[in-house]
Write a structure and sequence with these properties.
Layout: H1 2-5, H2 21-41, E1 48-51, H3 54-68, E2 73-77, H4 82-93, E3 98-101, E4 122-128, H5 140-148, E5 153-157, H6 169-172, E6 176-180, E7 191-195, H7 221-236, H8 238-256, E8 262-264, E9 275-280, H9 285-294, H10 314-318, H11 323-326, E10 329-333, H12 340-354
Parallel strand pairs: 2-3, 2-4, 4-5, 5-6
Antiparallel strand pairs: 1-7, 6-7, 8-9, 9-10
Length: 355
């Protein structure tokens, strides 16, 4: 990936909107990356809109749909990522009606709450494909069908799922979808909004004509090229990566299953193969993170985008997890760079901490 990016940081530095040769080379590289990303999520390359990451893509979709359907009803759920909940909260404050779906003890939204939608001027809905903390996978295709019956649009936050499980944009039935490069081992600071070609939304950034006029500004050519290459590798290695990560995750869960002080969240539902969240009763999650860091393990106590809000565990709270257990939660994200010996040492360290 780095080898693919370097020429566009050194030799081919031209603006991709330029018509001279090195500008055309940059444009061609962006077009190739668009095709690579489209192959990963099974969409038309013309539906790939480059952004600075998943948060910007979520904001672009939410604000764009809201502008296209002013003061219509929005549907979301209680466990969405902050890049979804905060722009929606701002819209609600400005007058958009909001229906917030509750989740069950596994963290899955209860679709039975989608009743009497005929009484609402349904605009759009947002649903994450998989939760960034627990890893639970939502039935977004079913949700899209239910919403679509009433003319609603659906935006899917697929930042966590793309590159980890198969994702088919048109198979889901959504009108837009957000993805991020760094979640598939690509560079940070680049992502994409996948936008159905039939949809017409307002731009997030007005100015030039880049990205179909939806996201003005000179493109991050090197980042986009790295994103495309990462997407190509992720597609080729999808099954191998998933199988490897799930093997490591299952090993941790098996080792922890006999420990009464360890609670694994959402263990008995569909989850991403690389994600595991557990609580150590009687401990503080951030303290565990610091202790593990000293031992050479990088884990987290929640979403990286909300870790400044100390003590806040909205996802587990929405699942009905008691406060003391929720505040001791730790999330593990596994990758192909991990080894079995690392997992063995991690298990040993956690068990020593418990005992």
């Amino acid at each position: 990936m780095l080898e693919a990016m370097l020429p566009f940081q050194t030799k081919f530095f031209a603006n991709a909107s330029s018509i001279y040769k090195i500008g055309r080379l940059s444009r061609s590289a962006i077009d190739t990356a668009r095709e690579q990303i489209a192959s990963l999520v099974q969409c038309d390359p013309r539906e790939v809109i480059f952004t600075s990451g998943g948060s910007e893509a979520n904001n672009m979709a939410i604000k764009g749909m809201a502008s296209a359907r002013p003061f219509s009803t929005i549907i979301s759920n209680t466990t969405e990522h902050p890049s979804v909940t905060k722009p929606i909260a701002a819209l609600e404050k400005s007058g958009w009606p909001l229906i917030t779906l509750l989740v069950d003890w596994n963290g899955k939204p209860d679709f039975s709450q989608l009743h009497d939608l005929e009484a609402h001027n349904l605009g759009f809905s947002v649903l994450m494909h998989a939760n960034n903390e627990t890893g639970i996978i939502n039935d977004v295709a079913r949700f899209a069908f239910e919403i679509g019956k009433h003319g609603g649009w659906l935006h899917v936050d697929a930042v966590q799922t793309v590159g980890k499980i198969p994702v088919n944009f048109h198979g889901i039935g959504a009108q837009s979808m957000s993805i991020s490069a760094h979640k598939i081992n690509g560079p940070k600071g680049v992502g994409s909004l996948i936008l159905d070609s039939s949809l017409d939304i307002d731009p997030l950034i007005r100015g030039g004509s880049q990205e179909k006029g939806l996201r003005a500004g000179t493109e991050n050519v090197a980042g986009i090229v790295g994103f495309g290459r990462a997407a190509e590798i992720a597609l080729n290695e999808l099954d191998v990566r998933a199988s490897f990560c799930q093997k490591l995750r299952d090993k941790i869960e098996m080792a922890f299953s006999s420990e009464s002080h360890i609670c694994i969240h959402a263990r008995h539902t569909d989850r991403l193969p690389n994600t595991l969240q557990f609580s150590l009763k009687g401990y503080d999650g951030e303290m565990i993170v610091m202790l593990m860091d000293k031992m050479g393990f990088a884990v987290s106590s929640g979403s990286a985008c909300s870790n400044l809000e100390s003590g806040s565990r909205p996802v587990l709270a929405a699942m009905g997890v008691e406060y003391e257990l929720a505040r001791s939660a730790v999330r593990i994200s596994l990758g192909q760079g991990n080894t079995e010996s690392e997992i063995d040492q991690f298990i040993k360290t956690i068990k020593q901490l418990v005992h």
